[in-house]
Amino acid sequence: MKTNEYLLEQMSWPVIKEKIEKGMDTVIICTASVEQHGYHLSELTDTVIGQATALRTAEKLGDALVAPVIRPGLSEHHIPMAGSITLRPEVYRGIIEDYVTSYKKHGFKKVIIFSSHGGNFAENEKIVKNLRQDHPEMQFSTGLSLMQLMALLGQFEKKYGLAEGSTGHGGAMETSVMLHVAPEQVDMEKATPGYIGKMTEEKLESLFENGIVGITEVGIIGDPREAKAEWGEYFLELFSDEIIKAAEKDFNNK
For every one of its 254 residues, what pLDDT tens digit does the chain have, with 9 covering 90 and above? Predict the structure, then answer.
């Protein structure tokens, strides 16, 4: 797949204008993060995974283009670990709102806003609710909820016979996707398991309120040691398919 067929940031403005006029009126905005991912993954992990997912989604839709991934995101729970960056919620919200306002002026009519970082989900739902009110002539989708994404992680674990809780932050899933799309940003010799266990809504709430260091010194939720590149390909297919299903439902329910 040629990324410049879908990535807005790699196109000239006349090319973008022509694509919109020909019916590519959906823009995909991924909100990601710049934050720690344990000993073995780069701080760009969520951004890399988010862009790969957005590109896969755009290719399948056929009428969508991909906005520059928004980074950093809301990562207060990772701040104790060096290099992590977090935005103030109002700054984060303003960036998304300005993306939408800009793309609206260019002729985009549908917007898919999804997150590749768990800390953004709750705010994204609030933001999209407000966007629907501010831009009633446009259609919006938040992609998946955090719990829907967690269900996909459970599906991933069952498919590959992994222990429950192996695929959280920096675990088997993210490591597999990174091995597939950006292996140069993975050091498997340093892959170290962190907290492994069921991530209930209560556990997630505690994580976001108290920080990841409260449950793991490594900065990992899950176990990355068994990750494989081919597993990453599977998850990109699964994630992009579910984003499309969610978007179709949201757009049809307008």
Answer: 455 799 999 999 999 999 999 999 999 999 999 999 999 999 999 999 999 999 999 999 999 999 999 999 999 999 999 999 999 999 999 999 999 999 999 999 999 999 999 999 999 999 999 999 999 999 999 999 999 999 999 999 999 999 888 898 999 999 999 999 999 999 999 999 999 887 777 777 777 788 888 888 899 999 999 999 999 999 999 999 999 999 999 998 76
With contact defined as beta carbons under 8 Å apart, do 94 and 111 qualify?
no
| H or E element in which residue 181 lies | helix 172-181
Domains of the chain by start residue, with CATH: 3-252 (3.40.50.10310)
- Rounded CA gap, 107 and 210, in Å? 42
Tokens found for residue 144: 């998946």
Q: How far is CA 83 from the centre of its chain?
A: 19
Q: What angle do CA 172, 115, 15 make, to 5 degrees?
A: 115
Peptide bond before residue 72 is cis, with ω within 30 degrees of 0: yes
Flag whether the pTM goes above 0.85.
Answer: yes
The letter for the amino acid at 138 is M
